[in-house]
């Protein structure tokens, strides 16, 4: 096949049985389970094990995994020293990429990645996966303290994954409702077929790079505003619009300049992203639980969705996962520039599930190109160049 398809649109990059999208009907499933049911009934810990192992775990399997995650939360103090050396003004996603890559030096264990059977041994893959997934939220929360001039707060083993993250972010006893909301958000963001960051993880994994290198490559890829970085952009955009009355003139101006409306559009979905529907409902529920006062960002978002449906709907451009998630995080008091880090925490489950799948049937990614450069020619010494 010699045809070049920009953005590899429609080109299968792998075979996978982890998740599936029906972009016409707006359906997302993990291992066959609809995302709505997982968000309603599961926990992030359970969903992670589902993604990794392929089946919903039995109670004792889940308890063991939960225990492993809790026991792997602490990080060596030199990681804290390393993070303290980073500029407090730096973006949390760049910190996270640096910190995750550094884990490979503090918790090594990639020696068996030789292409033989050892690297596909489940114990090895599982242990490395636990080491990373357990520490992702810890690194994000440590940075929140460090960049504000404080020592990080020690993780606790008596709290769930989401509750411990909120505790380490704030130093306060986590609110049950907020921990539950965060947990649902993590489930919704945990996996999404072969998106750009998962593809980056696959490419890195196919070279037998360490899982820390795999996840660091994926974090860098997720950070861009066309991918996970859009959730932060959405909230800045809504603040810039300022009020629902400004939506239509603002939208017309943006579209006339061919600029992107953040949090809208998707390569796979031609209808509203099912995760956006759930997140929108979660914003409404949270506001109802808090006495019904509607945030101005939410009002602007609703007006923008309506106006954009008229202008962009015919192109199949509707809200994606990033359109309402930022409003929810904002309501939860999470700093705007940490939104994408939370996305990365959740997606580490999907990245590592794909890493495991890739190792199980690995061949290095080495695509070809359509060469558009000069034909062969002879070198000319500087003095003879015209
Ligand atoms: N705002 C305005 N127009 C958009 C748009 C958006 N967010 N998303 C897509 N479109 C338009 C494009 O301009 C294009 O129009 P045209 O055919 O008249 O040129 C058409 O819809 C197809 O878009 P295209 O950019 O080719 O889609 P893609 O599959 O390459 O890109 C995204 C997908 C997600 C990168 C793109 O929709 C986007 O940039 N969205 C905003 C960023 C974002 O929210 N990313 C998070 C994704 S979860």
> Which architecture of the domain at 230-331 per CATH?
Orthogonal Bundle
pLDDT < 50 stretches: none
CATH topology description of the domain at 230-331:
Cytochrome p450-Terp, domain 2
Which CATH class of the domain at 230-331? Mainly Alpha
Keywords:
Cytochrome p450-Terp, domain 2; mainly alpha; 3% strand; 386 residues; single chain
Write the layout of secondary structure elements.
Layout lengths: L18 E4 L4 E4 L2 E2 H7 L2 H10 L5 H13 L5 H8 L7 H15 L15 H26 L13 H10 L5 H14 L6 H11 L4 H12 L7 H12 L5 H10 L17 H16 L6 H17 L8 H11 L7 H22 L26
Antiparallel strand pairs: 1-2, 2-3
Helix pairs in contact: 1-8, 2-16, 3-6, 5-6, 5-10, 6-7, 6-16, 7-8, 8-16, 9-10, 9-16, 10-16, 11-15, 13-15
The protein binds coenzyme A.
The site of coenzyme A (COA) has 18 residues, from helix 15.
Describe this structure in words.
With 386 residues, the protein is an all-alpha fold. The protein has a domain at 230-331: Cytochrome p450-Terp, domain 2 (Orthogonal Bundle), CATH 1.10.230.10. The chain contains 16 helices and 3 strands. The protein has a 3-stranded antiparallel β-sheet with strand order 1-2-3. A hairpin with a 4-residue loop joins strand 1 (19-22) and strand 2. Helix 2 (44-53) runs parallel beside helix 16 (339-360), helix 7 (161-170) crosses helix 8 and helix 11 crosses helix 15 (321-331). It is globular. The two termini are 40 Å apart. 43% of the residues are buried. The model has no long low-confidence stretch (mean pLDDT 96). Bound molecules: coenzyme A. The site of coenzyme A has 18 residues, from helix 15.
């Amino acid at each position: 096949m010699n045809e070049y398809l920009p953005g590899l649109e429609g080109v299968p990059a792998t075979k996978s049985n982890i998740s599936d999208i029906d972009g016409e009907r707006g359906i997302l499933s993990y291992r066959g389970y609809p995302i709505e049911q997982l968000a309603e009934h599961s926990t992030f810990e359970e969903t992670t094990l589902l993604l990794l192992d392929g089946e919903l775990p039995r109670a004792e399997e889940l308890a063991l995994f939960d225990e492993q995650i809790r026991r792997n939360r602490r990080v060596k103090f030199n990681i804290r020293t390393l993070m303290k050396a980073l500029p407090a003004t730096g973006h949390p996603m760049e910190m996270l990429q640096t910190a995750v890559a550094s884990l490979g030096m503090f918790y090594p264990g990639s020696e068996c990645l030789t292409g033989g059977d050892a690297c596909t041994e489940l114990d090895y893959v599982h242990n490395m996966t636990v080491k990373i997934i357990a520490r992702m939220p810890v690194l994000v929360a440590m940075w929140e303290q460090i960049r504000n001039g404080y020592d990080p707060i020690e993780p606790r083993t008596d709290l769930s994954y989401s509750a411990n993250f909120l505790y380490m972010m704030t130093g306060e006893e986590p609110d049950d409702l907020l921990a539950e909301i965060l947990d649902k958000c993590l489930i919704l963001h945990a996996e999404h077929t072969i998106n750009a960051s998962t593809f980056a993880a696959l490419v890195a994994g196919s070279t037998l790079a360490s899982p820390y290198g795999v996840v660091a490559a994926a974090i860098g890829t997720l950070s861009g505003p066309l991918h996970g970085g859009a959730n932060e952009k959405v909230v800045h955009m809504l603040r810039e619009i300022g009020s629902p009355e400004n939506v239509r003139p603002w939208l017309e101006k943006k579209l006339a300049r061919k600029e992107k409306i953040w949090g809208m559009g998707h390569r796979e979905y031609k209808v509203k992203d099912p995760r956006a529907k759930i997140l929108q409902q979660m914003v409404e529920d949270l506001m109802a639980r808090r006495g019904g006062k509607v945030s101005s960002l939410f009002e602007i978002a609703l007006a923008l969705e309506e106006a954009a449906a008229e202008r962009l709907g015919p192109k199949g451009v509707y809200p994606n996962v990033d359109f309402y998630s930022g409003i929810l995080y904002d309501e939860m008091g999470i700093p705007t520039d940490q939104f994408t880090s939370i996305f990365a925490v959740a997606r580490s489950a999907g990245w590592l599930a794909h890493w495991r799948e890739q190792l199980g049937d690995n061949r290095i990614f080495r695509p070809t190109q359509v060469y558009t450069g000069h034909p062969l020619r002879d070198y000319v010494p500087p003095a003879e160049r015209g």
